[in-house]
């Protein structure tokens, strides 16, 4: 069984600089790291090896020059995948998720993604993959109950109930952060990651050639506002009236 787990390289938020004049974000000096939500996807994919002894887990990412970082590749492989495929091209810096073409080239029975990315959290990858590949796509999965050669049984939490779904394979599953707690790689795993195979593809290798599907107009930090520091003490009608009056001033 071939399991693909998709991840995204995002700027480390600790290294992002905010321009005080316009609130724009400067990520030029920020190191790239695995999106926090995708760590859950990688962990979930590797845990499925216990249910399918013949499972091979391939980590995959599509993007720009951030994927050339050897440290980042080692970090991914130390978390359990058997191999890694990265599709690197400048046109993917401002493109919609293009894991579809890469997945078709690699072959798969199951694709596991995080529910969103820790930079933009658009929650689009899994749904676009399923729609484009014409296979089932389920998001918000909090538990994978069982895996067989032709089906997957999962749980996802809705507003007031837990839904159990039987999904025929091949399929795309987006997991939530409730599904597991990603393990910290051991020293043995980190050293062993250097021996695992890595394939580097270009856009041409997967037959992709197109103009950017979107352009980023502006990404900025929210404006900082000075707190009014209004504290209304007590539980009587006067305090309630004072609270309501302050709300009216803010709304109007």
UniProtKB/TrEMBL annotation:
Family annotation (PROSITE patterns): ETF_BETA (PS01065)
Residue stretches making up the Electron transfer flavoprotein alpha/beta-subunit N-terminal domain: 22-210
SMART domains referenced in this protein's UniProt entry, alphabetically: ETF (SM00893)
SUPFAM superfamilies on file: Adenine nucleotide alpha hydrolases-like
Keyword annotations: Electron transport, Transport
GO molecular function: electron transfer activity
Superkingdom of the source species: Bacteria
Gene3D superfamilies to which the protein is assigned, alphabetical: HUPs (3.40.50.620)
Keyword Transferase listed: no
Protein family according to the UniProt entry: Belongs to the ETF beta-subunit/FixA family.
This protein's name: Protein FixA
Gene that specifies this protein: fixA
């Amino acid at each position: 069984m071939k399991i693909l787990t998709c991840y995204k390289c995002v700027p480390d938020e600790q290294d992002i600089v905010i321009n005080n004049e316009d609130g724009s974000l400067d990520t030029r000096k920020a190191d790239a790291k695995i999106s926090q939500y995708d760590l859950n996807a990688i962990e979930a994919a590797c845990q499925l090896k216990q249910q399918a002894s013949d499972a091979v887990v391939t980590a995959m990412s599509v993007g720009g020059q951030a994927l050339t970082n050897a440290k980042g590749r080692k970090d991914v492989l130390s978390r359990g995948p058997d191999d890694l495929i990265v599709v690197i091209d400048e046109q993917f810096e401002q493109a919609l998720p293009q894991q579809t073409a890469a997945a078709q080239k690699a072959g798969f029975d199951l694709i596991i993604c995080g529910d969103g990315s820790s930079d933009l959290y658009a929650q689009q990858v899994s749904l676009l993959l399923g729609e484009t590949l014409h296979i089932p796509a389920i998001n918000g999965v909090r538990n994978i109950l069982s895996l067989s050669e032709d089906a997957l049984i999962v749980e996802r939490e809705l507003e007031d109930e837990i839904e159990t779904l039987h999904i025929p394979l091949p399929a795309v599953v987006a997991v939530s952060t409730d599904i597991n707690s990603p393990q910290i790689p051991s020293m043995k795993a980190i050293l062993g990651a250097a021996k695992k195979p890595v394939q580097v593809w270009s856009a041409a290798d997967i037959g992709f050639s197109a103009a950017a599907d979107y352009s980023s107009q502006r990404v900025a930090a929210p404006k900082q506002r000075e707190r009014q520091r209004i504290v209304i003490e007590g539980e009587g009608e006067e305090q309630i009236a004072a609270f309501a009056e302050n709300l009216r001033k803010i709304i109007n």
